[in-house]
Design goal:
The complex is a heterodimer of chains A (about 160) and B (about 100). The model of chain A has no long low-confidence stretch (mean pLDDT about 80). With about 160 residues, chain A is mainly alpha-helical. Chain A has six helices and no strands. Helices cover about 80% and strands about 0% of the residues of chain B. The chains are: A mainly alpha (about 160), B mainly alpha (about 100). The interface between A and B is large, with 93 and 74 residues.
């Protein structure tokens, strides 16, 4: 597959997933659109030569977070009825804010980008391990600590509700 | 079309979803769009600038970890809201007690 075609596939996956999230009226379709977007993110990592990050994205997000969202959806569905319909309301203030932020990002970063961004060199997992367990050891440990705090927070939130 | 335009548009869509939707699950998914597009933009910018791929990959991994923690806490709040009120709307979080 040529680099240009791969680039277009990445952009289409990202765009279609995001538009699906924007337009979905049913929670299940919203979640599936998020899945398409997350696969697009993984494909973009693969395109830029970051194979390990792409695999981690698929494992953590598509295999983990997406399944977690589907489980949460099952609980909501049991509480709210068979089909979870989402209310869509068009809010001019929100639209103007979102559009302004998107334009700001484009204007700020436009001098850095061309229409086509070629893939860079590939990264092997050994170099990544050297970074994570060498120069980036402290941020790596902080990220691990953050995950631990998140797990404790989840247990505190759900456990407190269960005991009440 | 440049990846910059697509990522900025996706970030804008995520922000719009967060601001305009009233369902907690939709707000969470909007946040995921914002984090994902930001991560792709960072990786693309690093690629354009010719930075070391291993360093880029390390920073990208940190963002993935951050987003996973955010999703876990958000979904726990969603389940707590549904258990307490039977609904999953952001209005349920107007009053937060310690």
């Amino acid at each position: 597959m040529s680099a240009t075609l791969a680039y277009v596939v990445v952009l289409v996956l990202l765009g279609v997933g995001a538009l699906g999230v924007l337009l979905a009226r049913e929670a299940l379709r919203l979640t599936l659109s998020l899945g398409v977007f997350l696969l697009g993110v993984a494909a973009s990592f693969l395109y830029f030569g970051l194979g390990f990050l792409a695999v981690a994205q698929v494992f953590v997000y598509v295999g983990g977070v997406l399944v977690l969202v589907l489980f949460a959806l099952m609980i909501v569905r049991r509480a709210e009825g068979d089909r979870v319909l989402l209310g869509i309301r068009f809010d001019w203030g929100s639209a103007a804010t979102a559009l302004s932020v998107a334009i700001l990002i484009i204007v700020m970063l436009l001098p850095e980008f061309d229409a086509f961004v070629p893939p860079a060199g590939t990264s092997d997992p050994a170099a990544l391990a050297q970074r994570l367990l060498g120069g980036y050891l402290v941020p790596f440990e902080i990220a691990g600590g953050l995950l631990l705090v998140a797990v404790l927070a989840v247990l505190a939130i759900v456990g407190k509700e269960a005991s009440e | 079309m440049s990846i910059l335009v697509v990522c900025a548009a996706v970030f804008g869509i995520g922000l719009f979803v967060v601001l305009s939707r009233r369902d907690v699950i939709a707000v969470l998914i909007g946040l995921e769009l914002m984090l994902g597009s930001g991560n792709v933009l960072m990786v693309a910018l690093a690629s354009v600038k010719g930075h070391d791929p291993a360093t880029t990959q390390s920073l990208g991994l940190m963002v993935v970890v951050l987003a996973a923690a955010e999703a876990a806490i958000g979904l726990a709040l969603l389940i707590a809201s549904v258990r307490r009120t039977g609904r999953s709307r952001v209005e349920e979080f107007e009053e937060v007690t310690g």
